[in-house]
């Protein structure tokens, strides 16, 4: 089968490889769609934990085989995939926080993922889909869409809050989709330094500004919740300007460079008694809430349509062009691979 594999930093190849071998309680998923994430850019640049490795942690497909006698009913089922593989026995796993697991594995960064025609996925990581959800929407249902929901929950979002999203990439726009389409918030602002990203956020119905727009000054200290969904290290300064007194800055965006903040800007965190909170992955235990299942419900109802933020589609043999587009084209939001039989 065809697989897009990282052999070393910046050494991406389309290889012909054997079908993955299934471990116990694993399923063979015939990949339909898989999306390139900001994390893939980091791994492409610095390498993954093991190499060569098939990248891809945002994908969907159809189950062809299950090595588990109790789950044969999954064969033929359309599924989304949760890429996080928590250990199941550390303190955090046992306390319902698998996203904070200290001994996890991960599809597409620690073991082979979904940029291939087939992927081996543990049965517990499958999200069976109702007929009303498209496979393309399902590919990005967990990451970035459930990741965005988790950020809103971490940030203590409540109806009617004034919210700004900094970062018009996949996670930032997913936060926007939740707020605008699922929670009916009409005054969400999106900030990005790239004009094309601002234009895209506007096309979805958002108020959007570049970070140098003078209009942004009017929002100074007004935002009860600021979602920092960008790797740009300077964005924290914008967040500290925008956040209201006693407001919250929640950070789902992974910075790739050292963050440095002017002392006077940092002091705003103190003077405003603002809260700065991290957000990692998504929650998928039944208590307090399985965020992937929440996302699934909104997708099934048609309230959320994640493919609104998909801008480009490629096949696996166009992998280099796809990565180049995802990382260098300012008009690219989510860039997706589609299995050849479902393209066009
Ligand atoms: Zn991702
Ligand atoms: Zn664990």
TrEMBL record:
Q: State its Enzyme Commission number(s).
A: 1.1.1.47
Task: State the Gene3D superfamilies in the record.
Answer: Medium-chain alcohol dehydrogenases, catalytic domain (3.90.180.10), NAD(P)-binding Rossmann-like Domain (3.40.50.720)
- Domain of life where this protein originates: Bacteria
Identify a single GO molecular function assigned to this protein. glucose 1-dehydrogenase [NAD(P)+] activity
Q: Does the keyword rRNA-binding apply?
A: no
The cross-references to Pfam families, in alphabetical order and at most eight, read: ADH_N, ADH_zinc_N
Positions of the Alcohol dehydrogenase-like C-terminal domain: 170-289
Point out the coiled-coil segments of this chain.
Answer: none
Q: Which parts of the sequence belong to the Alcohol dehydrogenase-like N-terminal domain?
A: 23-131
Q: Which UniProt keywords apply?
A: Oxidoreductase
Which top EC class is named for this enzyme in its record? oxidoreductase
Concerning PANTHER family, the annotation shows:
L-THREONINE 3-DEHYDROGENASE (PTHR43401)
The protein's name in its UniProt record: Galactitol-1-phosphate 5-dehydrogenase
Q: In the record, what lineage is assigned to the organism producing the protein?
A: Bacteria, Bacillati, Bacillota, Clostridia, Eubacteriales
